[in-house]
Amino acid sequence: MKKIIFLSVWLIPVLAGAQTDSVVYKASSKVVKSAKNPIEKKETYSITITVTHIRNHDGVIRFKFFDDTTPFPHKMGFRKVVVPKSEVTGDSLVVTYEGFPSRNMGIALLDDENSNWKLDIGWFLPKEGHAFSDYYHTALRKPVYKDFRFLLTGNKKVIMKMKYY
Q1: 86 and 57 Cβ atoms separated by less than 8 Å
Q2: Do residues 4 and 11 make contact, with C-beta atoms less than 8 angstroms apart?
Q3: pLDDT, tens digit, 9 for 90 and up, residues 93-120
Q4: Residue 25, by phi and psi: left (phi above 0), alpha (psi -120 to 50) or beta?
Q5: How many domains does the structure of the chain reveal?
Q6: pTM listed for this prediction
Q7: What is the pLDDT of residues 74-99, one digit of tens each?
Q8: What residues contact residue 17 under an 8 Å CB cut-off, 6+ apart?
Q9: Do the domain assignments include residue 39?
Q10: What string of H, E and C letters represents the secondary structure of the chain?
Q11: Peptide bond before 73: cis, by omega within 30 degrees of 0?
C-alpha cells in the first residue's frame, strides 16, 4: 500500500507537468531492450490535424489526445497540447504531431476563446467551440469516445470541423 501511495505521489506530478507542450510534439522511436531481443525499435507515427471553421482569433486551441486507457471524457487524456490562435490562418489551422505508437486513439479540442482553461456553458449549450477527430457532433448528448476513435497504424491525417452553438 505504501508503494502505491509513493508511486501515486511521485507519478501524478510528473504526468501533470508533462501534459502541456509546445505547438509541435516530437518524440523519437524508443529503443526497448528485452531478454529475447536485445534491441527492439517501436515504430511511431505522425498525425496531421486540420481544424476548419474557426470563428475568430481570440484565445487558444486546446487539444486532448485520448486512448483506450484514458478514454474521453477522461480529465487529462494521455496528452494535452495548447496552440495559440495566432497560428490560425483565415479560419483554419494545420498542425503535425509526431511520435505516436500504433493504438486506438481519439482527439478532442476546445476553442478556448477567453483562455480560462474550461468550456464555458450558456443556459444549456457551450458558448465556445469544440471538435473531434474525423467526427462532427450533431446530437444533443455528450459525444462518446467510440464516435471519434480511430486505430493509428501509420501516419494519419485528421479533419476536425469546429462546432459552435
Answers
A1: yes
A2: no
A3: 999 999 999 999 999 999 999 988 888 8
A4: beta
A5: 1
A6: 0.72
A7: 778 899 999 999 999 999 999 999 99
A8: none
A9: yes
A10: CHHHHHHHHHHHHHHHHCCCCCCCCCCCCCEECCCCCCCEECCEEEEEEEEECCCCCCCEEEEEEEECCECCCCCCCCEEEEEEHHHCECCEEEEEEEEEECEEEEEEEEEECCCCCCCCECCCCECCCEEECCECCCCCCCCCHHHHCEEECCCEEEEEECECC
A11: yes
CB distance 118 to 126 below 8 Å:
no
What's the DSSP call for residue 30?
P
Residue 48 has pLDDT above 80, yes or no: yes
> How far is Cα 23 from Cα 137, in angstroms, rounded to an integer?
25
Q: What is the CATH number of the domain that holds 118?
A: 2.60.40
One-letter amino acid identity for 111?
D
Is 8 contained in some domain?
no
Residue 119 domain boundaries: 21-161
Instruction: Let me know if residue 111 belongs to a domain.
Output: yes
Which DSSP letter does residue 113 get? T
Alpha-carbon gap, residue 115 to 6, rounded angstroms: 34
1 inside domain: no
- Partner residues linked to 163 by β-bridges: 130
Cα 38 from Cα 28, distance rounded (Å): 18
For residue 126, give Cα distances in angstroms to 61, 90, 149: 15, 23, 22
